[in-house]
Design a protein that fits this description.
This protein is α+β, with helices and mostly antiparallel strands. The protein has 8 helices and 10 strands.
């Protein structure tokens, strides 16, 4: 899987078997209604979460990684002013974006195969799918793909992974209408934030089948989306998705429009997949430029002025009808999840 995989709890398969047996109890000998209802609903808590890391042939950043304030201070003895509160106060011509081709399991969000110079689409370069499918939108990685701190196993990846395990960024997925895990034309799904801390086993992995309550703030309730399962893969959308990003000094909202959830069921009861959508560039900058501020720029190795310029130049969604300037940028996340009981207390169903 893109972004690597974590070792799933060995107890998931056993607990899943016990749960399926219990689901059938209480039904009379001539009916499987209880079992069918139980099997139609699936709940999950995310156990691993990160950006999707595209695959490349060769070095995707042949000019090297962009330099942050610490590197510039080390290399040139220049202490840059803090541009984070006002990222347009000066420019960073050395900031490097990722301009080459790459492959990832993504979505063609805008229905257009885009290349730089193609007018009317906030000119951007799409990625390809794993089999070479054109048109995969992932503008955020174009903006930060040559920033060291956003790479796999670097600081951003590490702290986000920790956040979904320690309860500061609990993500719940509620799936309903699953009658056939291979092919099913009518399935719904919804993504929620939660303030509950998932239980963790002695091995440091999330334990399956915990009961976790959705966030009381409806800001962190994604819209109910409709979709279908084709060849064992569930795709739901488009829908609005709201993710709470709470990592160390950052506590922000990621409001994704035109969002999609792709989810694959596993035999041991766990699941994995990706989340896609368009995030406002002002919101993305608030997280990494305003909230993380100079400390974030130092740690991840970027200048705030360079990051803001890159987000604007790589924005690929919601063009202004008059200026053609885009205000949102496509994002892609990958996740793994273990079964959970999603308690939707206080939600009108």
């Amino acid at each position: 899987m893109i972004g690597g995989s974590r070792r799933r709890p060995q107890s998931v398969a056993l607990v899943a078997l016990i749960a399926s047996l219990l689901a059938g109890c209480g039904s009379d000998g001539g009916s499987n209604d209880s079992a069918n209802v139980a099997s139609a609903k699936r709940g999950y808590v995310v156990s691993s979460f990160s950006y999707v890391f595209p695959e490349h042939d060769g070095d995707p950043c042949p000019g090297g990684f962009t330099r942050g304030p610490a590197e510039i201070r080390r290399d040139e003895g220049i202490d840059l002013p803090n541009s984070c509160p006002d990222p347009e106060s000066f420019s960073d011509p050395e900031f490097k974006t990722l301009d080459g081709p790459g492959r990832l399991p993504g979505i063609d969000l805008d229905g257009v195969t885009s290349t730089v110079g193609l007018g009317g689409t906030c000119a951007h370069a799409d990625f390809s799918g794993p089999a070479g499918e054109p048109g995969i939108d992932y503008g955020f990685w174009r903006a930060v793909g040559c920033v060291r701190g956003f790479q796999k196993d670097e600081i951003s990846h590490i702290v986000i992974e920790e956040a979904v395990v320690n309860g500061s960024m609990t993500i719940l997925i509620d799936v309903d209408g699953v009658d056939d895990e291979t092919n099913d034309r009518a399935v719904t799904a919804q993504i929620f934030g939660s303030t509950d801390v998932p239980p963790v086993g002695a091995d440091g992995e999330l334990l399956p089948f915990a009961t976790l309550t959705i966030h009381e703030d409806q800001t962190f309730h994604g819209a109910l989306g409709e979709g279908e399962i084709v060849d064992g893969v569930l795709l739901v959308g488009p829908m609005d998705i709201n993710l709470r990003l709470n990592i160390q000094i950052v506590d922000g909202n990621q409001s994704l429009s035109n969002g999609y959830l792709r989810l694959e069921f596993h035999e041991d009861g766990s699941a994995s997949g990706q989340i896609f959508g368009y995030q406002p560039i002002a919101e993305a900058y608030d997280i990494f430029g305003i909230q993380a501020g100079r400390a974030g720029a130092e740690a991840l190795s970027y200048t705030c002025t360079g990051l803001w310029s890159a987000l604007k130049s790589e924005a690929d969604g919601h063009p202004d009808p008059e200026t053609g300037e885009c205000s949102t940028i496509s994002v892609a996340y990958r996740f793994e999840a273990v079964p959970a009981f999603v308690e939707k207390r206080g939600l009108d169903e």
